[in-house]
TrEMBL record:
Subcellular location: Nucleus, Nuclear pore complex
Ranges in coiled-coil conformation: 523-550, 576-618
GO-annotated biological processes: mRNA transport; protein transport; ribosomal large subunit export from nucleus; ribosomal small subunit export from nucleus
Species lineage: Eukaryota, Viridiplantae, Streptophyta, Embryophyta, Tracheophyta
Protein name, as recorded: Nuclear pore complex protein NUP88 isoform X2
Entry keyword set: Coiled coil, mRNA transport, Nuclear pore complex, Nucleus, Protein transport, Translocation, Transport
One GO CC term on file: nuclear pore
Organism: Nelumbo nucifera (Sacred lotus)
MF term (GO), any: structural constituent of nuclear pore
Keyword Transport: yes
Length: 681
């Protein structure tokens, strides 16, 4: 959509021009290909990445063509002919890398079973990169790759250096120290005899021999993966995976990413009349032979430039405690804060939550932070569910912004077409919450003292302590009031009384007159609070009989349910044995088939049929960048294809049996529900 447009005279609306990208691929009526995620490339203003349900990642250049993609990568995470689940071949999300070595040339792809794969290097034609970043990668490949004692590391680094020198010709034409280029432009290039390797799936790093099995196991979260986010934080590359159960799996790359090519698979390259590359397509297969368990105690020569995918270091698993009765699979999305990279926003059906990472492996090690403060903090930002029983109200759109004054903002659009703008505080967000366990909590044992304002000074509240009445003495009793000694004594006593009590009375009168309005407000407030407390007591007394009735009714219902439970226990149905471990595993497989594999298999079959029709209808020798096969096929390949077809038929037969088992299980479940309803009185 082009935001600049013309203003209409009717309703004062702005009309914008919209265009369709890849309409023959995604908007064909006979095509069932669905776009899973669309994202702009961070190093180009005109390139758009699209991941679709046919397991193809396409990169479009909007400045040159809208229908034909510039680059196509056909993802094959499993070798052909091997049986696998549909979840392991169904991509759901992707993310471009960030400002860290080869991460800027990488694409991270998430599949439905939680496995993560990497494509490296993927560079849009004409994208711009900083000279310092390219020089750092170039020097690293020469220092740690070409000078390695391992021949495999030398071969891989040589391919990477050749790719860098061809994509950025300035590296080979000018010395690194004397270069004055602020930025470099990527030239179109792809090796004619090699395709990219789909690196993965990424495994957990192991601390010892006893954890080798845990590094190969799958994810510990429930449900299926629905969202993915890559975030570069200083020296760390953080990967966040969102699951349909409302859990977030946070990992960090424990090693650097290196480019890996497959020399046995040639790409399909399209050139113009001047022999310039204008498009490419390649099949990216994963290599299970590259799998290697990485440990912390391995030397540097055993891990650098050997083609192994980088391992993952598990940081945390965050449970957002979303209601279990609602499937948040299509409602979970992840966003990074542009101002504070340690803060991640998770947008779900119930609102927005903020997750702050307080510990990162490499960054915290440099800053000297303690690993004990590594638990991330979760803060709710926005709640769209007014009540617990109400259905979730998802947001239509969300974006995180940072202005030029150093403030972080979030903008969200609701279903009722309202825009919410919130300012996010950032000065103390990275400070972890410290809780003093030894400190006494505020409760009934200890009540904090509250400083009340002084209405009357403390000096006036304490009466004068002067004792002007003398003790009785024989000389005083013998004095008369008319005598000189008696008058002198009376004059001294009157003076003491005036200096203390009369002046004290004047001060009290002045204070009471000065604070009379405030005292009246305080007294009125006390009376209103007393009246409110009395009203609450009366309401409680009125509700007490109703509460007693409800308690009695609950006791009666409880007794009725106990009697009904005893009757149900006597029925033959509840005496069935509990499911065994194998039966429970089979039940879990049936549920997974019902939720995911059936839909994935149907969409895959439809996509394959559509691609077959398109290929059959296309004329021979058409200019297509899809990899084609030769007309004459050897007998060995024909026999291999026949064996593959037989295996495919066996897989289809097995899937049909599973479908029948799922239908029978659903029928038995419905019949069981009807039987329970029939037993109810």
């Amino acid at each position: 959509m082009h935001l600049y447009g013309r203003t209409s005279t009717k309703d004062n609306t702005i009309i914008c021009r919209t265009i369709s990208i890849g309409s023959k691929i995604y908007f064909d009526n006979n095509n069932f290909i669905r776009a899973s995620q669309v994202s702009w490339h961070p190093y180009s203003d005109t390139h758009l990445g699209v991941l679709s349900s046919d397991s193809v990642f396409r990169l479009f250049d909007l400045s040159s063509g809208l229908e034909q993609p510039e680059q196509e990568y056909y993802l094959q995470p499993v070798q052909p002919g091997k049986c696998c689940s549909a979840a392991s071949t169904c991509p759901v999300a992707f993310s471009f890398g960030g400002e860290h070595l080869w991460d800027r040339f990488s694409v991270f792809i998430l599949f439905s079973d939680g496995s993560i794969y990497i494509l490296c290097p993927v560079v849009p034609f004409g994208s711009i990169y900083r000279w310092e970043a390219i020089g750092e990668i170039y020097n690293d490949a020469q220092a740690f790759g070409l000078k390695s004692s391992n021949s495999r590391a030398v071969s891989n680094s040589s391919l990477a250096i050749a790719w860098l020198e061809t994509t950025f010709p300035e590296l080979s034409h000018q010395e690194m120290e004397g270069c004055n280029f602020p930025a470099l432009k990527a030239h179109p290039y792809a090796p004619f005899d090699a395709s990219l390797t789909l690196q993965g799936p990424l495994r957990k790093v192991c601390h010892g021999e006893e954890e080798e099995d845990s590094g190969v196991r799958g994810a510990v979260c429930e449900g299926h993966a629905v969202g993915f986010l890559y975030n570069s934080i200083s020296k760390d590359s953080v990967l966040v995976t969102a699951w349909s159960s409302g859990q977030l799996q946070i990992d960090a790359l424990a090693d650097e990413i290196q480019p890996v090519w497959n020399l046995d698979n040639r790409p399909r390259i399209s050139v113009d009349s001047h022999d310039h590359i204008i498009g490419l397509a390649m099949i990216c297969e994963s290599n299970p032979e590259e799998f290697s368990i990485v440990k912390f105690d391995q030397p540097l020569d055993h891990t650098v430039w050997l083609g192994h995918p980088p391992p993952l270091l598990r940081l945390a698993v965050v449970d957002l405690a979303l209601p279990r009765k609602v499937d948040y699979g299509s409602l979970l999305s992840l966003f990074a804060d542009p101002l504070i990279p340690e803060r991640i926003y998770c947008v779900h059906g119930g609102g927005i939550d903020s997750i702050v990472l307080h510990f990162l492996p490499f960054t915290s090690q440099i800053n000297g932070k303690d690993e004990s403060m590594g638990v991330p903090s979760v803060h709710p930002v926005l709640n769209t569910c007014l009540e617990e029983s109400s259905s979730p109200s998802p947001l239509w759109g969300f974006v995180a912004l940072a202005d030029s004054f150093g403030y972080s903002w979030i903008v969200a659009v609701t279903l009722s077409q309202e825009c919410i703008v919130l300012e996010m505080k950032s000065w103390n967000v990275l400070l972890p919450l410290h809780v003093d366990v030894g400190k006494k909590q505020i409760g009934s044992e200890e009540i904090p003292e509250v400083d009340t304002p002084d209405i009357i000074s403390k000096e006036l509240l304490s009466i004068p302590k002067v004792d002007f009445v003398p003790q009785a003495s024989p000389n005083l009793r013998s004095m008369t009031a008319d005598s000189i000694e008696g008058r002198s004594t009376l004059h001294r006593y009157f003076k003491l009384f005036h200096e203390n009590y009369v002046e004290y009375a004047h001060k009290v009168f002045f204070e009471l007159k000065h604070h009379s309005a405030q005292l009246k407000r305080i007294i009125d407030d006390q009376h209103s609070r007393l009246h409110e407390a009395q009203q609450r007591l009366m309401n409680v007394e009125e509700k007490q009989p109703k509460l007693d009735d409800r308690v009695n009714h609950a006791v009666q219902v409880h007794r009725f349910l106990e009697e009904r439970l005893l009757r149900l226990r006597n029925l033959p149905g509840p005496h069935k044995k509990s499911l065994s471990r194998a039966e429970r595993q089979f039940k879990t497989e049936l549920e997974n088939l019902q939720d995911l594999e059936l839909e994935a298999l149907r969409s895959s079959i439809k996509a394959l049929n559509t691609r077959l029709k398109r290929y059959a209808q296309s004329p021979q020798g058409s200019a297509s960048i899809m990899p084609t096969r030769k007309a004459h096929v050897p007998d060995s390949q024909v026999s291999h294809l026949r064996s593959l077809v037989e295996k495919l038929s066996l897989v289809n037969t097995d899937n049909s049996k599973k479908v029948k088992l799922v239908e029978s299980a659903l029928r038995s479940q419905e019949s069981g529900k009807r039987y329970d309803m029939h037993l109810q009185p």
